[in-house]
Amino acid sequence: MEIKSVGVIGCGLMGSGIVQMSAISGFDVIVREISEQYLATGLGKISSQLEKAVAKGRMDSAKQEEILARISGTTDLADLAECDLIIEAVTENVELKQETWKTLDAICPANTIFASNTSSIPMHIQAVVTNRQDRFVGLHFFNPVPVMKLVEVIRAATTSDDTYEAAMQFARSCRKVPVSCIDTVGFIVNRLLTPYLLDAIRALEAGIATAEDIDTGMKLGCGHPMGPLELLDFVGLDTVLAIAEIMYEEFKLPQYEAPEMLRRLVKEGKTGRKSGTGIYTY
Ligand SMILES: NC(=O)c1ccc[n+]([C@@H]2O[C@H](COP(=O)([O-])OP(=O)(O)OC[C@H]3O[C@@H](n4cnc5c(N)ncnc54)[C@H](O)[C@@H]3O)[C@@H](O)[C@H]2O)c1
User: How many domains does the chain fold into?
Assistant: First the structure.
């Protein structure tokens, strides 16, 4: 089951990173967005990342050209029909993901592998709407994708050995370190990280310190490269809210309950770095 071509759905924060990483690793990639405008923004982000790498002498311009030549974009899902592997990176929403898989299932040949980059939604909930539950797996990358080494490979009860092995092999081909996880809400990292991020907002809400001091406390006191509030803005407050709601719905534990301040910021469109304002203003 050799993977040569990759289709990516969504060219936001994660999708654009997955496209960039796949093309750098030698795969042909086609990415689908919902509009030409979003597509241009996502592809523009990749171009400027590569441009920066050339300017810093980390890549020569021939390599840059070669990588860009492997990437194409579309707004038509049907253009992904020839891909060996399709990785979904659309907004964290169960219905949207199910709808996307249902449509793709009718478009793609039976041997195409489907992989979700969801932060929290179990694979079986997505795979069930397709006729390829054996060829459905989770590939959960981390932000920024070209830099972060980890990928969680999530194996549903129905995932075949071949599909699981192909996913592990794809992760290694992209020079990532894969870890395996059973098909549970939030997997490994978000199960542990989400309560911590939500607690940081609760600490800010309670007025125990300024945002800057909370972040400095965790960076200098615990050796974290980023403070929790900076990290929230980096991940996207809307995405963290969606993850918290999915995890609270599943576990009904107070540590997964979204704080009021998070709900308010998202309602006001303050989603973090991607909108220019979140906990901080950029
Ligand atoms: N932000 C993170 O740090 C992070 C990390 C790991 C995984 N994830 C997961 O990755 C997924 C995407 O998150 P993100 O942070 O990139 O969000 P984002 O908001 O930056 O990007 C989502 C993109 O999906 C596009 N989209 C929506 N519906 C679509 C459709 N039907 N077809 C094609 N594109 C569509 C949107 O236009 C948007 O550009 C989510 O499931 C999220 O939980 C996020």
Answer: 2
Active site (catalytic) residues: 119, 140, 152, 190
Range of the domain at 101: 5-182
The Å distance, Cα 13 to ligand 1 centre, comes to 7
Q: Report how far ligand 1's centroid is from the alpha carbon of 126 (Å).
A: 15
> Does residue 119 share a domain with residue 30?
yes
User: At 194, which CATH number?
Assistant: 1.10.1040.10
Q: Give the global pTM.
A: 0.96
Reduce the secondary structure of the chain to three states and give it as a string: CCCCEEEEECCCHHHHHHHHHHHHCCCEEEEECCCHHHHHHHHHHHHHHHHHHHHCCCCCHHHHHHHHHCEEEECCHHHHCCCCEEEECCCCCHHHHHHHHHHHHHHCCCCCEEEECCCCCCHHHHHCCCCCHHHEEEEEECCCCCCCCEEEEEECCCCCHHHHHHHHHHHHHCCCEEEEEECCCCCCHHHHHHHHHHHHHHHHHCCCCCHHHHHHHHHHHHCCCCCHHHHHHHHCHHHHHHHHHHHHHHHCCHHHCCCHHHHHHHHCCCCEHHHCECCCEC
**Atom 7 of ligand 1 has which residue's CA nearest to it?**
119
Q: Of 150, 182, 214, which residue sits at a domain end? A: 182
Residue 281 lies in a domain: no
> Of 16, 90, 148, 237, which is best to mutate to test ligand 1, by the most ligand atoms within 8 angstroms of its C-beta?
90
Instruction: Assess whether 85 and 205 both reside in one domain.
Output: no
Is 132 in the same domain as 173?
Answer: yes
Segment 113-170, tens digit of pLDDT = 999 999 999 999 999 999 999 999 999 999 999 999 999 999 999 999 999 999 999 9
Q: Which atom of ligand 1 is nearest to the CA of 99?
A: 31
